[in-house]
Amino acid sequence: MDVKLPKLGEGADNGVVVSIFVKEGDTIALGQTVLELENEKAVASIPSTGAGVVEKVFVKAGDRISVGQKIITIAGGASAPAAAAPVAAAPAVAKPATKKTTPKPVAVVETEDDGAPVEDTDEIFSENPAASPSIRRAARDFGIDLRKVRGSEEGGRIILADVKNYIQRLIKAASRPAAVAVTEAAPAKPAPVQIDFAQWGPILKKPVTQLRKVIARRMSESSNTVARVTQFDDIDFTKLGELRKKYGAAYEAKGVKLTLTPFVLKAVAATLKAHPIFNSSLDEVANEIILKEYIHLGIAVDTDAGLMVPVLRDVDKKSMVDLAKELETLAAKARDRKISADEMKGGTFTISNQGAIGGAHFTPVVNLPEVAILGLGRGAMKPVVRDGQIVARLLTPVALSYDHRVIDGGSAARFTVDLVKAFENFDEALVKI
Fold it and tell me: How far apart (Å, rounded) are the C-alpha atoms in residues 116 and 112?
């Protein structure tokens, strides 16, 4: 029997082979992992749908394969229906529990000489259209307002065919000189120019990974969308350093290392509670600001493959010990590319710490759909004035980038002031075990 790549989930139909765990002649069991597939920011383990002896392997590391493509052929043994890969799939959006409605009549505008009507491409069908994350992402990429796309599924839910039909309407309207149509088109991107760098000396070529493509796309989206402003300051980490030394041994006895990051998580969570606008998102479709009553903090992790941001949930409700353990687990999974897509979703605010590397002030990019991100640099002992005396204190540079469409400068300044207080007046009771 042939083992083929199963469905990966909505919006995902291909990926790049990272590792292959079987070879010709191997005896494998039903459900045994055959290979690992990279898609978006996660790596999925693909199981065998049969048991027996591997007769032939059709793929190799680095190959891009699609759903339904043959992976291996095996002889003998039992088989089972192909199951969807557990990782790298976008969550499905439930259909609205509403009865089927009659589609709205499509408005038409002026006609061309042949009398064929041109559908109105500017009509609003829904102020809050239902669509899957993959459809919304595609709409953003092509500058399409989903409110103007008529959904054909139950409850007006938009599918890929509806988006294609809308694009055809735009093309048809644009091709008719007599038609009156107003569309919102994204600015044209200049065509890339390929340069032969080898003409000036030796070069090496390295393929752009799927993860790097995702990072590039998300950073470009943020840069093109967010009106970013960055607020800078220095925070006295002296007390936090002392608390870390004082309780480090007690945490090690619990099997976990006490770093400064759990302190940062707790201080940020407390400040977000006092300033909920920084724990929000902008819904551009509904023209609403969504204030979240939960605090899920993303932690930027530097890996060999690129930047990954696992999310720690309900930080305000967890102890320092629990946060330290969860941090170690998530960071290790991110570096080993074993973290699931769900473990990197749902963040409300992101923290990027370059201190261990040695960076100072920098301007972090807001992680959409969040509205703010905190960057921390390397702490250093510096002379400061305290009570009229010059003393040495551990100062850490911080940078708060925020979306000026949602947050004003005054709010950012107040947030930073309270954040400084949360660090410098950290409650020792939170550290005790």
Answer: 6
Model pLDDT, residue 146: 84
Spell out the CATH class of 2-75.
mainly beta
Query: Domain ranges in the chain?
Result: 2-75, 93-188, 227-335+342-430
- Residue 145 is predicted with a pLDDT of 84
pTM: 0.61
Q: What is the mean pLDDT of residues 138-152?
A: 81
Q: Which pLDDT belongs to residue 181?
A: 42
Does domain 93-188 bear CATH number 1.10.10.10? no
| CATH top class, domain 227-335+342-430 | alpha beta
Instruction: Kindly compute the dihedral angle of the four CA atoms of residues 404, 405, 411, 413, in this order, to the nearest 10 degrees.
Output: 0
Residues 301-344: pLDDT tens digits?
988 878 889 999 999 999 999 999 999 999 888 888 888 888 98
Q: Which residues pair with 173 in a beta bridge?
A: none
What amino acid positions are annotated as catalytic residues? Answer: 404
Judged by average pLDDT, the poorest of 41-50, 231-240, 361-370 is 41-50
The predicted pLDDT at position 105 comes to 41
| pLDDT > 70? residue 102 | no
